[in-house]
Amino acid sequence: MTGLRTNQDLDPDRLREVFGSYPSGVVAVAALVDGVPVGLAASSFTSVSLDPPLVSFCIANTSKTWPDLRRAPHLGVTILADHHSAVARQLAGAVEHRFDGLPLIVTAEGAVTLEDGLAHFDTTIHHEVPAGDHTIVLLRLIAAGRSQLPDPSPLVFHRSRFGRLHSA
């Protein structure tokens, strides 16, 4: 098969390019920490288990946000819709402006979700698994809900760009 290279070509820039060939959805992970919304965007979210109900995302070990966010008793996860590309960029930007102007829902336990997301989860940290330069965070679902948007379509991250699914 052409195009395959040996493992000596697995430098981080090359891997980022190759991994970018696979599209993924985008979520916001957020909570109140010391009374202030703290959060981030993640493109590594996936369902894991129905029993017990678990989802996961991966976070870079160099994240400056995760050490604060992981202190929260509950984390909110929002599946972002295709109209959220600017929101995803905002959540990856300056910490002090990540939630400026965003319509938020905050649970009594401090989980923060975006009001107009495709789906919302209230979660707690179940387990963290070290995995190279990232950590796999397993989250246990406490509550889940789906949007009632008339034509829900997820935000898609592909080749370092945001986009949407197109019907065939």
Automatic annotation (TrEMBL):
Protein name, per record: Flavin reductase
Query: Pfam families per the record?
Result: Flavin_Reduct (PF01613)
Residues in a coiled coil are: none
Which keywords does UniProt give here? Answer: Oxidoreductase
Span-the-membrane segments of this chain are none
Family under the similarity heading = Belongs to the non-flavoprotein flavin reductase family.
Protein's UniProt keywords contain Oxidoreductase: yes
Alphabetically, the GO molecular function entries are: FMN binding; riboflavin reductase (NADPH) activity
Asked if the Swiss-Prot or TrEMBL record annotates the protein with the keyword Transmembrane helix, the reply is no
Residue limits of the Flavin reductase like domain?
Answer: 19-164
